[in-house]
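Supplementary notes for students who missed Thursday's class. We covered one full example, reproduced here. Read the sequence, then the structure, then the short commentary at the end.
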Amino acid sequence: MTASTTATEDDDSIWVIYESPPDFPDQYVARRLHMNHSTKDYVVGNTMIEVRSKLPKGLFKIERSDRDDPMIRESWI
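Structure (token representation):
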């Protein structure tokens, strides 16, 4: 998460989990998109399980598509 924000529930948001993006090599990062626009909200962890545990409760997982960027592991709405 950004230092000043917490993961919140939002019906118009999607959280996308990336594996080893350039700004966090060797880590997992979930970034919140609001209505398909980037936000400053993110969470970081050493494992995907750790990142999942930091997401808002009550989200549903969306499996990745073959068309997704290779760094994308899954998304949550």
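Commentary. The chain has one domain: 13-76. The chain is about 10% helix and 40% strand. If anything here is unclear, bring it to office hours.
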